Amino acid sequence: MNQGLKLHKNISILIHILAWILIGAVLFLLGPLSWSTTLPAEFWYRQLTLMGLLVALFYTNKDIFVPKLLFRGKTWLFLLLTLSICFGLMFLMEYFENLIHLPELMHKAFHPEGDKPFKPKDDYIDLFMLLVLLLASGISTSVATVQKWQADEALRRQLDQQRISSELSYLKAQINPHFFFNTLNNIYSLTSIDVESARIALHKLSRMMRYVLYETEKDQTLLSKEIGFIKDFIELMKLRISDKVTIELDITEHFEDRVVAPMLLLPFVENCFKHGVSSRQPSTISIKIHTQDNALTLETSNKIVPQNPTSPESKQQGIGLTNTKRRLSLLYHHKHELVIDDENPENEYRVALKINLS
């Protein structure tokens, strides 16, 4: 990671150096070298000095003035300072040129016969130099603005990813205790009825706990493990339901293994047994899990059995499904379809979930 950052920084420095070499060649070398005269050494001193001032202005503006003034809302102070510095550097260059007698030397270079006498300039405004200085300041401001936008965007993405990771961890932490609370209650009820069934149930629960402990720590797990977990859960639920409940299962046995978020299907299956089992009248639970190419399809249906409003399950109703909907939205935002129908003549709770696993 550190080597990658160091390499990125070195490449950035190299790009800056090459860019300044190209700018210097275009602005200060190509033109003068094409002139059909011998230029004095003082001219190249002036070019080198101006190039140094442009580099200093560029990085001073980009790294100091823009962050400390413009990005903090001090726009007028920034503009006033930028214009003052540009005019100041222009006058400084004028003074430097006069100090080394560059105007006179350049006049002699272009009029070696002396047919035209040298006349000093009446004004001290060099529009070309001023425009070059303002251009350097403007480009540095643009570069600083783009870099800040990129940094803000990268930070936003990082914060969003951290928020999503934290929220997913929180949602999974809510789902898992909720599931084990119900399952342990089921096993507890079995201990007073059928010890052998309770032993089998404990064995299945221990296998499921291994899945929860190790697979839910990952962002993704194999689809075969997730479906195997669902099958264990259904078998565990069969141990506690009466003969009045009919379970219709249609689960793909052979499929091309893919990856899926762990514990994503359980709340829909768990909901069937939690709210679709009646001790007084016959009921049917239908669970279908199919895979085709990159699509995973889950369809469940169960009778809506009224719950005791004072029971813990009634108070916790919908926690698992609400959290799972949120997980689907975060993990498969544009890659899933979820349809829940709880208002139909058959008084059934129906779920149709399709996830694109590509």
What's this entry about, in short?
It is built from 10 helices and 7 strands.
Walk me through this protein's architecture.
This protein has 358 residues and is of the alpha+beta class. It folds into two domains: 2-157, no CATH class; 194-356, 2-Layer Sandwich (Heat Shock Protein 90). Helices cover 63% and strands 13% of the residues. It has ten helices and seven strands. It has helices spanning 2-34, 41-68, 75-99, 102-110, 127-191, 195-215, 223-238, 266-275, 312-315, 319-331, and strands at 221-222, 245-251, 259-260, 283-292, 295-303, 336-341, 348-356. The strands form two sheets. It has a five-stranded mixed beta sheet, covered by helices on one side. It has a two-stranded antiparallel sheet with strand order 1-3. Strand 6 (336-341) and strand 7 (348-356) form a beta hairpin. It is rod-shaped and about 120 Å long. It comes from Echinicola strongylocentroti.
The structure class reads alpha+beta
Q: Kindly provide the radius of gyration, computed on alpha-carbon positions and rounded to a whole number of angstroms.
A: 38 Å
Q: What general form does the structure show?
A: rod-shaped
Please tell me the overall pLDDT. Answer: 77
- The string of secondary-structure elements, in order, is HHHHHHEHEEHEEHHEE
Q: How big a fraction of the residues is strand?
A: 5-15%
The total beta strand count reads: 7
Distance between the termini: 29 Å
What is the overall number of helices?
10
How many domain units? Answer: 2
Flag low-confidence runs.
none
In CATH terms, the superfamily of the largest domain is Histidine kinase-like ATPase, C-terminal domain
Classify the helix fraction into a percent range. 55-70%
Sheet with most strands: strand arrangement: 2-4-5-7-6
CATH topology of the largest domain: Heat Shock Protein 90
CATH architecture of the largest domain: 2-Layer Sandwich
Taking the sheet with the most strands, its summary is: 5 strands, mixed
Task: Write down the CATH class of the largest domain.
Answer: Alpha Beta
InterPro entries: Bact_2-comp_sensor_kinase (IPR050640), HATPase_C_sf (IPR036890), Sig_transdc_His_kin_internal (IPR010559)
Transmembrane segments: 12-31, 43-60, 76-96, 127-146
Keywords: Kinase, Membrane, Transferase, Transmembrane, Transmembrane helix
Domain Signal transduction histidine kinase internal region: 167-244
